[in-house]
Amino acid sequence: MHELDYWVIPKGCPNVDAATAFIAFASRPDRMAEQATLTAYGPANKRAIEFVDQSVLPHLPTNPDNWSRSFVIESDWWAANEQKVQERWLLWKNK
To answer: CA 90, 77, 88: angle at the middle one, nearest 5?
Structure first.
């Protein structure tokens, strides 16, 4: 499964230039590859894969072999059903 995250700059941010520079830096393929190596988060920038150590690549969700078997988390469904699922999980877990 995979979830998507985003870099954003809130309206009215007092440091737009610094925030923009950070997003540009953090989105570079080499930086995303380093993050993937340290956290196992799959890089969003497809060019980052070529910078990831080959021993790490099989464990990343964005590895092409893994990506082809993944699915997107349905946020709307979870927003509507999370409480019900949590209650069922706790009942099952505590049996």
So the answer is: 15
pLDDT of residue 44: 85
In single-letter form, the type of residue at position 12 comes to G
Residues 6+ apart with CB under 8 A from 34: 51
Find the helix packing angle between 29-39 and 16-26, rounded to 10°. 70
Regions of the chain with pLDDT less than 70: 1-2
Structure tokens at 9: 């700059």
The answer to the question of residue 7 being in a domain is: no
Domain enclosing residue 46, as ranges: 16-93
Best CA proximity match to 26, nearest among 12, 2, 5: 5
Q: Count H helices and E strands in the chain, helices first.
A: 4, 0
